[in-house]
Amino acid sequence: MAAGSSSGALLTLRVLLFCALAAAATTLLPLATSPCTHSLSRSILAATGLDPYLFSCAGGDASEAPLLSQGDDGANKTGGSGARRPIVTDQLCVKGKLPPHALPPFQCCPPVSASEPINFTLPDPSEPLRTRRPVHVVGAEYMAKYTRAVALMKALPRSDPRSFYQQANVHCAYCTGAHRQVGRPDLGVQIHFSWLFFPFHRAYLYFFERIAAKLLGEPGFALPVWSWDVPEGMGIPEVFTDEASPLYDPIRELSHAPPKVADLDFFLGGEKNLTDEQQVLHNLRVMYKQMISGAALPSLFLGQPYRTGDAPMPGPGTVEWAPHNTMHTWTGDNSLPNVENMGVYYSAGRDPLFYPHHANIDRLWEAWRGIAGADGRRHEDFTDPDWLDSSFLLYDEEARLVRITVRDVLNTERLRYRYGGVGLPWLSARPPVTPGVNPKGGRLESVRFPVSLDTAVTAEVRRPPRAQRRSLQEKQAQEEVLVVEGIEADAGDFVRFDVYVNAREYYKVPLGGREMAGSFTTLKHPGKEGTVVRTSMTVALNELLEDLGAEGDDSVTVSLVPVRGKVRIGGLRIVYMEE
Ligand code: C2O
Known about the structure:
The protein is an alpha+beta fold.
C-alpha cells in the first residue's frame, strides 16, 4: 500500500506526553535517559518490559513533549521503522501451555488442513439477515434450536473441525499460545488483553453460528445472546441448567445457578451478598463506566495495539476487564484451582454458555460504535492497518480452513447478522459522587515506584500542563488518561486491584461510587504458573474529573487498592490521548 493512501487510515495516536509519576517518587529516580517521545501505546509496551523508559519519564517538570505525530503522516508511531507488523496466524500449531491441574484434553490444535487456507469472502448479500436476540427474549422454541445445534455438534466425530469438541478447542488454541505467527514460529498468538480481543471472538462466533445453521438446516439461525447487562438477563439462563440438556455443563459454579443475580464486578472469593435490587443497580453502573465514561477512545474500549514481535497482552479495553473477565470467573466452578470451565481461557469454550456470553460481548462492541462520544460523533474503530490486517485461521461450515482478517469482520450486516430485542438500560446509570472522601491538606506519604501492592497505595499524580484550562473543544479532542504502567501480576492467580480517583478515604466510597474508576482483573494465564503477566491499564478521566468537580486541580489523588493476588505497579502517569 502506498504511503500516501495508507497514512489517512493509520491510527493517529497523537499523545501529548506528560510524565507524571507520583511527584514524590521523582527525586528517587534516575535522571532521564531518553526523552518522553514515545507514543503512548509504545511507551506502554516499553513499560511492561520494565524498560528504563518508565523512569526516564520522571523528569517531573511540566514540560510539554512534542506531539508525536503531527497530522497525517506522523501516524506511524509504534513500528519505529514504520514497517507493517500485523499478527498473522500460521497453520503451524504447537502444544499450548495449560495450567497445572488442567482438565483433559490437553492438546487443542485444530485438525491439519489438507489444503492451504482460503481467504475469507463475505456471504452473499441475499442471505437472510440473522438477528441475534437475548435468551430471555427468544423463548423456549428458539432455545430448542440452539440446544439441537449443540447436540449435533457434539455428535460429530472429534476429527471434524466443526464438532463441538474442536470448536471448544479453537479458543484453547488461541489463548494458550498454540497457534504460531507467520514469520515468527517462535511466537504464539494470544487473542486476549489487546486489540485482537473483539475481532477474534467475532470471527470465531461467526463460523460457530454458521456451522450451527448448516447442521440445523436453517440458514437463518442466529445465536442467542446472554444479555447479562440488562436486568432480565442478569443470571445464568434456566435453559442452561437442565442436567439432561446438551447445554448443561456440570463444571460451573453451583451457587451461581438461577435465580442468582450475576455480579458483573465479581472476583474470586468476593461474594457481595447484595440484595437483587442492589446488585442490579451496581451492575448497571459498572456497565456505564465500562461502556461510556471509560471508553472514549478506540484503545480504551478495544484494547492496546499488539503487533508481531510485541510481548503479548499489552492491555485490554474496559469491557474485556469487566464484565468479560468477571463473568467468566463468576460462571466457572469457583472451587476448582483454575475455575473451569468458563473461568479459565483454555476450557471456557467447553461450556455451551460461552457462545451466548461472547455474543453479548460482540453486541456491546456494536453498541459502543453506536454511542456518541463527547464530541457528538459516534465511536469509531481503529483504522491502523496492522489491526485491520491481523488475521486468524478458522474452519467454516464446509470444514474448509479460512483466513479471516480483522478488516473482514467490521461490518456485521455484511456478515449477515445483527442484534435485536434488547435495549441499553445502563446508558443513564451514571454513578453518584461520594462527598467527603478526599479531605485536602496533610501531605501524602511519598510512594516509591515500582511498588508491590501489598497494601493500598495512594499517590498524587500531576495532570498534564494546562489541564485545568482546557477548552471544551480540547477536551472533546483529547481524552485525559491515567496510565497504570508496568503492572506485573502473578500469572498463577486470579488477580484484582481497584483504582480510585480523588478518594484518599476510598474505603468510604460505596460500591460502584463514581470515585472507583476502574478494576484490574485477570483470569489465570495458561502455562505461566509462577511467572507474571506484564501489562498496563488505562483509565479515562475526562468525565470522571468533571463529575468529581476536579477539573480545576493540578493533580489528582490516585489510590490503588489490592483486592486479590500479588501485583506490582511500575508507575502512574497522566497523558492526553487522541486516536
Ligand atoms: Cu476468549 Cu471470553 O474469552
